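One-letter codes give the sequence; backbone shape is given numerically. An example follows:

. . .
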Amino acid sequence: MSVREFLEQEEYRLLAPQAQKAAETKGRAYQEEESDVRTCYQRDTDRIVHSKAFRRLMHKTQVFLQPEGDHYRTRMTHTLEVSRIARTIARALRLNEDLAEAASLGHDLGHTPFGHAGEVALSEVMGIPFHHNEQSLRVVDRLEKNGQGLNLTHEVRMAILGHTGLSIPETLEGQIVRVSDRIAYINHDIDDAIRAGILTEADIPREISYVLGESHRERINTLVTDMITHTSETGTLGMRPEVSQAMNELRSFLFARVYKNPVAKGEESKARGILQALYTYYTKHPEALPADFIPQLDFDGMPRVICDYIAGMTDKYAVHKYETIFIPAAWHVRS
């Protein structure tokens, strides 16, 4: 018996009946020989972590555009926080922690540079809504490994797609990632807003703090713990109504005070301008696209390929390309 087969058998012994078992995966789009030492979901985690799109998350905006300070979240740190929350909940409920981890680490691979401003910019130039969850799925299915994709399992793919939007993941592990994403960003965005001087703890409405707690640590602990205890008691994944309502009210508070705050979002029009200028340029000069994107033009069409290229950029790289294309280079005359 291989290590993988042993681990698959152990899942039946240790995990809850409703947990997704690795041996019962719906499989991959392209059949592959199984690993001797890793389950399919462990393998998916490794593929995501070793992908180029995952590495780029460290230089992509979470909320604050190019903040001055090393402690503000990026897409990478957000992703890691989601993973930890999802794994904690999955483990406590005896669900498949490997599946939750893989989906968590892959859920934001399709995010644009400059956060939400990038999504708005690409939606405007494409003439159709740009949804980062759909782009994340496209990254793992089509764009990674020079167009081969990562060939992930069905369950991980659907959890990535369903971490936001109308599509709800079919597995409980995928649904946990969906909730964990919201728990993570609501709380760490408050933390960053306080660090930026936009909020203080005292600004958070008392009725919310009364339910969730008075600090970053208390709020996360309340939400995670309640998710575990309520699900265990009822058999239905979720939080108590008063806790869920408080979380939704805190999210609404964030939209009003942080996500639409002119201090935090003051540079967004510039960010949109950069991405839209790049899109226009590459539409006129598709030959300037990187060589590995050129073959895609015949299959996906110019708008989609340019969108893929720009969506994959980091904040710094987008600024660099803009400066290279549109800003005159300095030159010196020899004396």
